[in-house]
Amino acid sequence: MFVLALRSIRRRPGRFLATLLSAFLGAAIIMMFNSMHDTAGQPGVDAVSSDTLGTAAGVVGGYGTLLVLFAVASTLTVNVRQRAAELELLRCSGATPAQIKRMVVGEAVAVALVGAALAIGPAMLGGRVLLDMFQDGGQVARSVEYSFGPIALLSGVNITLLAAAGAAFLAVRRATRRGRERAGARRVLAYGALAAGAAGAGSTFFFSATDEMLMAPPAQGAIMLSVGFALMSPRLLKGVLDRLALSGASGWLAVRNLRQRAGELAGILVSLIMFTAVSTATLTMQAVESDAVAASGLVKSVDAKNLETLNLTVVGIIAVFVCVMLVNSLYAATTYRSREFGQQRLAGATPGQVLGVVGAEGAILAVAGVFFGTVAALAGVVPFTVVRTDGVLPDQFLGTWLATVAVTAAVTLGTSLGTARRVLRTPAVRAVAVTA
Question: Any stretches that span the bilayer, and where are they (predicted)?
Answer without folding.
Answer: 16-33, 53-73, 108-131, 151-172, 188-207, 219-237, 265-288, 310-333, 354-378, 398-420
